[in-house]
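go over this record:
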Amino acid sequence: MRKNKWAVAIAGAVVLGATGAAAQTAPISRTIPVTFTGTVTSSAGDTLMVRQPDGSMTPYTGPLPDYPYAAGDAVTISFNATLPTRAYYDSAYAGQKAADGIYRITVSSPYYNGGTAPGGIGNSTEAEVSGPINPALNSVQPTNTRMTIVYDYNTDSYAIEGAGSFFSGAYSLPGYLYDASSGTYLLCGTSGRPSCLPSASYDPILTGLSGGTGGTTVNVGNVRVLSTDPASGTGTGIFNLSFLGSWNLPQFGGATQVPEPGMLLLFAAASALLPLRRKLRRSA
């Protein structure tokens, strides 16, 4: 009988030891997908501005080849973010805990953080965009992605700061090429189309993605329009695109303080007694 007691005690110690080890080795980070899902709100032709010989810019109203992103098309932007868990703030961050349990983490791609590969809290992958927008090198620097994500220690949950402030660039994408000899525009940069490289020393058409100013709008800004006659500049210009949608994480607008349930009941009880007290006074 005594032997059995020792066996039970040893088994219990093993279980406790295993539980303690599990608690000590809880992961301090997790990687989650961050995704924007939306639609294109305007075509390239709606915002195309053409540079005139005197340098001024005027809206273009003539015919254009179809652009790969047309109004109403579905579009997604996605990247993975490595974020802290409760275990991070209970161990590595001990002694620096926020009183309200709210932490802001600016995640960015490795090159921006001085590295070359994902890993560690605050790192993210390059944002990928559906369609022919692709991460590209800009002066031998890869695309970078940045976004501020809020971690709530109290609920072990994540949200996007404010209206979803987001930036990522540079990206290569199709542009228009103005053919000076015919006075028409060609779509370049896609399979079977003319190149958007006027010379070997030029980068591809590059642009950046930015969001947050319009709540759920991501902008593709100042896409270049090149020309077969780059010396004159006639016919060159820019256009913009906008994607309207939402992120898969909720927006964080700051904590709203509300009375605890117990206090609500106390206030309600006190309010209910006021009419009775007034009635008793009148009777007296």
Residues 6 and 77 are 60 Å apart (CA to CA).
